Amino acid sequence: MSSYKDKKVITIGVVSELTGLSERQIRYYEERKLIFPDRSKGGTRKFSFTDVERLVDIANKMEDGLQTFEIRKMEQKKLRQEELRERMLRGQLNAAFNLRK
């Protein structure tokens, strides 16, 4: 079951109010592949609370002088590290309990 924070239910206008970012900035971050909102049948962007937190983090990094490609690279590195950590943990559990895939 996914967390309420991951449900894509918030419109871009509300996200703009919550983050202080303009709708244009939010769309730009989507274009730069930093966030991935869902779309309703009518084409309206739908964001999650996790997306809102991510947008605030992106805005802070941009204020610190980072470029969007640098932020994307950092995020990709973080995901790779999390995947590696998960594989290592799975391997340790398999070894400890003599489990096979």
UniProtKB/TrEMBL annotation:
All residue ranges annotated as the HTH merR-type domain in the record: 9-77
UniProt GO molecular function: DNA binding; DNA-binding transcription factor activity
Keyword terms, alphabetized: DNA-binding, Repressor, Transcription, Transcription regulation
PROSITE patterns reported in the protein's UniProt record: HTH_MERR_2 (PS50937)
SUPFAM superfamilies noted in UniProt: Putative DNA-binding domain
Gene3D superfamilies xrefs: 1.10.1660.10
Top-level taxon in the UniProt lineage: Bacteria
Keyword Lipid metabolism: no
Record PANTHER family: HTH-TYPE TRANSCRIPTIONAL REGULATOR TNRA, REDOX-CYCLING DRUG-SENSING TRANSCRIPTIONAL ACTIVATOR SOXR
Name of protein: MerR family transcriptional regulator
